[in-house]
Request: fold
Amino acid sequence: MYAVSEPGDVNRLVTDHLLLVNRIAYHLIHRLPDSVQIDDLVQAGLLGLIEAARHYRTDQGASFETYAGIRIRGAMLDEVRRHGWAPRSVHRKARTLSAAVQAVEHRLGRAARDAEVAAELGLGLEDYHQLVREAASYQVFSFDDAIGDDDDLPAGETYAPTDAETPYDSLANEAFREALTKTIARLPEREALVLSLYYDDELNLREIGEVLGVSESRVSQIHSQALVRLRARMRDWRGE
Reply:
């Protein structure tokens, strides 16, 4: 077993992967409220990078960049969680929106359109889209955690679970990710494509807009709507 323990090794790995921290921070910031500052994400990510360099082992099966990327993203999300940026009102709005989407889709037997959900909630389209943006920012953690982990690893790479993770936790997480993958596949085509370009190909919103031939704000709207629809369709898994 080989562990990176020498100070020189740690310093080299950190120095060589500073740009990785910035890339992850700028990719993540688009899904968070305006109150979250990029500098705070970078600072948290740097700590995650240092910890990754200290604890990385070659026998974990993943390359250091892959291993560090997961730890950096996790450190950033933990930092935002600690600051409790989402007030209770946002949580309530997210649950209300999720229930409305689920009700419309159950009644119509197809994907709900924006205007239909807005009508269900008694809102105008502008107020509805604002609600969608707030709800999508709130739920970034649930789906980012699920989409992450093994799904972030290149083909053939794995890493060992932490000591705190029980076999039941691993099985439950695997089942949730499998259900989430199937749910994503059943999204409207454009929503599924935006999620794929964003999470799998790691394009930013502007780049996705160029691919689709729409504005960055429209991509943000599609992305938010996709997350809201996922939340609605995964309510049973989330115990809501």
Q: What stands out?
A: Residues 145-171 have pLDDT under 50 and may be disordered. Residues 196 and 207 are 13 Å apart (CA to CA).
